[in-house]
Amino acid sequence: MTATSLRAFFRPDGMMQGRSRVLPRIVRWLLWTCLGLAVSNGAGAQILEVSAADVSGAGWTAQHPRVTLATSAQGDQLRLAVGVVRAGRRKLWRRARLQCGLRTTQGWACRRGHLVVDGSPWGALHGDGQVQLRWVGGSGQAVLAVRGVQFGSARVQAQSTAAGQWHLTGAGSLPVAGLVRAFTLLPASWQTSGQARWRVRAQGASWAQARQVAFELQGSQLQFGSPDGLQGAQGVALQLRGAGVYSGRWHGSARLRWTAGDVLWSPWYWAAPAEPVQVQTNWQQTSKAWQLDEGSLRWPGLGQGGFALYWPTQGGLLRWQIRDMNVAMAPLYANWIKPLTLPGGLAAGLQASGQVRFSVAGEGGLNALRWDLRNAAVSSPNRLLAVTGVNSRGAWSRTGKISAATLRWQSAALYRIPVGPLHADLVVNPQGFHLQQPFTLTMLGGALHFRQLAARWAGPRSGFSMSGDLQGASMAQLTRIMHWPPFTGTVSATIPELQYHAGDLSTSGALSAHVFGGTVRVHDLHVENFFGVLPLLRANIEISGVRLKPLTNAFHFGYISGVLDGDVKDLALLNWSPEAFDAQFHTVPVPGVRQEISYAAVQSLTRLGGGDGIGGFFQGLFLRMFKTFAYAHLGMGVRLRHGVAELSGVGIEDSGFVILQGQGLPRVDIVGYNRRVNWNELLARLQTAMRSGAQVQTGE
């Protein structure tokens, strides 16, 4: 038996010339040569080897390809080896080798083939398959079938004409783990599973360049999970369909449908709605970027809108736009905004309704925002905040442009205090906004006038600030809403600049109010976690000139006439309940103001000091004969720490403390002896005193 060896070498420079015609020449020459050898010399052995430095087309390169054909009486063997196959700059295959038995009856048939790839996006591959080739009258047909554990299965059929036109169809299945690894869709440490089925159709005028392509990818039972459990998906079903045409650049359309499954991407969680979530877009690909144009998103139950995306492939920032997104506020806040809020805070418990249309754009960050909020409402379950009939329009830009915005609401409530309608015009700048002109809100029968209101959402001074004044607010309405003892009269206050930052509220000056004929000034006001759980208020309070007659009338404490001064130092309220303070209150003589106290008020003060009231039949009967009693000094101190109140008065007598020092005849002194008392017990004493303290009409 003789052997014949024929080697053909193609120079790299020869391969680079006329790329669109090189591959058909090689295939056609190889087919006819091998067919001739197989027919003419069946008894001998022949070896044909064709190799090249590289073979390339538009966007792809195969380095060091080598085809070896060995024919013998025992059968023909075909071996194909390629060093590296690249698509653009991406390395697809490394050291790929295919070996199969060859049949040349009515074309070529490469059966019982075995494929080995040392490196690919799927890792090392081992697969079995077959290739069939036919070449009749200048027209060719090829069928490739491959199956592998990591790769899945694929069947591709290609047909070509003598003029070089070709058509290709393919279908197969692919493990999702391999697909994710191939395109680096998720980190390598994540667990993935599921199956993806694909179909593709393509055609072109030459083998070096496709002209049209259509594809479909369906994924079922898709699952993934991160090692920390903060990202994951289960039972996801997706369908991607698209088509493209090449006319100097690739462009086409695509549609994605999400039909089933749940996705956790901490802090967000989404479940597929009853109707599919659909994304459609036109796309184009150039040497510099991928671009999505005229995209649309439809999310049943949430809303719909448009989008665009520009993704540079050679460096640069991702540019994106969301256009005219029209969504419902309830699911937008519940599923997209609330997960970003602090657990337990006011924002985490809010509920929203209404519609909003917005457009946003960004390039490495948010660049611009335009919104139109219509007939919205916001409320918290405990009614700490409730706003209805909200409408707002405006725009914001990071580029330094200043624009106008409006905010309207029909009614609102803050800490259950009702507030009237709002109409505010704002000036928006890159760092925040401020009022275009002052405005007034009706509240508690009075008016809250805003002289200044501003917000800043960037930098160390982020937050909001305001200043203004309150006039004519009804104390009766306030005490009824807050479930306090009923007050009468009105209150007016001057509000210095209030500042809110990172959950804390503070003032830059003293907040002053006029109540019961006197003045109350609040200094060093600071509220931590103002809108959250367990807010903590700290302040110092100064009281001067408060008339006791209207104050005691409000509390049904009994009649007391006089003028009261005092202060509350180091006040701490946790969740609006006292935790600690040092308080001192005492009367001051004022010309023209009598210092008198009724029998009922004497009884109330006695109970407040820890006694049971004025005892003794004859003593009580005697004192009841007088409507009022004159006094020289009246006062009391309370120091609260750890739930225990330490009491004091205006003087010391024996082992007790003087609450009331009488004057004239009959003289009445009130002395307390129980200096330390539980705070809740002291409050109970005060409530008892107010319930039993009948009012005395004095004719004043």
Assembly form of the protein: single chain
Briefly note the structural class of the backbone: mainly beta
Task: Tell me the major beta sheet.
Answer: 47 strands, mixed
Per DSSP, what share of the residues sits in E-state strands of 2 or more residues?
over 45%
Helices, by number, come to: 9
Q: How many DSSP E strands?
A: 47
What is the global morphology?
elongated
Rg, Å, rounded: 43 Å
- Residue stretches low in confidence (pLDDT < 50, at least 5 long) are 1-43, 612-622, 693-700
Q: What's the helical proportion of residues?
A: 10-25%
Q: How far apart are the termini?
A: 141 Å
Average pLDDT reading: 82
What does this protein look like?
- The protein has about 700 residues and is mainly β.
- It has 9 helices and 47 strands.
- It has a 47-stranded mixed beta sheet that branches.
- A hairpin with a 5-residue loop joins strand 24 (about 385-395) and strand 25 (about 405-410).
- Helix 7 packs antiparallel against helix 9.
- The protein starts with a strand and ends in an 8-residue tail after the last helix.
- Mean pLDDT is about 80; it is low at about 1-45, about 610-620 and about 695-700.
List the helices and strands and how they pair.
Layout: E1 3-10, H1 12-16, H2 19-40, E2 45-52, E3 54-57, E4 60-63, E5 66-71, E6 76-87, E7 90-103, E8 108-119, E9 125-136, E10 139-148, E11 152-160, E12 166-175, H3 176-182, E13 191-204, E14 212-225, E15 231-246, E16 250-265, E17 268-271, E18 277-285, E19 289-299, E20 303-312, E21 319-328, H4 329-337, E22 351-363, E23 366-379, E24 385-397, E25 403-409, E26 411-414, E27 417-419, E28 422-429, E29 432-435, E30 439-443, E31 446-456, E32 463-474, H5 475-482, E33 490-501, E34 504-507, E35 511-515, E36 518-528, E37 536-547, H6 548-555, E38 560-561, E39 563-574, E40 577-587, E41 596-598, H7 599-608, H8 617-624, E42 628-641, E43 644-648, E44 651-653, E45 656-662, E46 670-672, E47 676-678, H9 679-692
Parallel strand pairs: 1-2
Antiparallel strand pairs: 2-5, 3-4, 4-6, 5-6, 6-7, 7-8, 8-9, 9-10, 10-11, 11-12, 12-13, 13-14, 14-15, 15-16, 16-17, 16-18, 18-19, 19-20, 20-21, 21-22, 22-23, 23-24, 24-25, 24-26, 25-28, 26-27, 28-29, 29-31, 30-31, 31-32, 32-33, 33-34, 33-35, 34-36, 35-36, 36-37, 37-39, 38-41, 39-40, 40-42, ...
